[in-house]
Amino acid sequence: MTKSSGCGQCRSGEPLPFAFTMAFHPIVDLERGAVWGYEALVRGTEGQGAGHILGQVDDGNRYRFDQACRTKAIELAGGLFPAGDLRLSINFLPNAVYEPAACIRATLEAARRIGFAHQRIMFEFTENERMTDVAHVQRIVTDYRQRGFLTALDDFGAGYAGLGLLARFQPDLIKLDMELIRGIAGSPARQAIVSGVIGIARALGVAVIAEGIETPEELAALREAGITLFQGYLFARPTVAALPELNLPGLRQAA
What we know:
Blueprint: H1 3-12, E1 21-29, E2 34-43, H2 50-54, H3 62-80, E3 87-91, H4 100-103, H5 105-114, E4 121-126, H6 134-146, E5 150-156, H7 162-169, E6 173-176, H8 178-181, H9 188-204, E7 207-211, H10 216-225, E8 229-231, E9 239-240
Parallel strand pairs: 2-3, 3-4, 4-5, 5-6, 6-7, 7-8
Antiparallel strand pairs: 1-2, 1-8, 1-9
């Protein structure tokens, strides 16, 4: 889709042909014993999974959907998050950003209107699908970081060119894919790979989040490796339009 058609989608004001909301899933900092932030995940208004919504996204509404997701996440977070420095993590579609400066305006306006500091917003992009224009994605990441947003490379280790993307982008954070996490306590191979990734990330000044944590054994192995930021069902399940209660004793729930 061309830049002009993307602009037309944003300016038309035409509503999306489907309704959606967001669920929130915590990212915890075990070094501090507190919640670091929440990822906003697309859900149907009746609790349907992300696939139900994403299956309705096409070239005719992709730009509007990406913009609407950002605004919806910020509006909900503004009403749910307590005062403080909790981060809001938003997934975005790189191919739905035709020009970074133009496509970020609605996000900045929503943050200003809600009173949510945009420096608390993290944008996640995934390596789990082939990017059609890597240079374009690099321009987006560079622009967002210059504006004060955090950036994260999601599903690291699951896609096509994780190390290559890390070398080009150097985001603020990477999120280890759950395929590397699952069963790591009993897998010397996974332990060696994760240890190597942590070493590379430290050398580049990139923080690491381990996602998909489901068992105390996985958590213990990753803490032993030096990771402090975690996300997974061990701590909580995503909750639609609300902040979930934490399951792990000792973690401070934001008031």
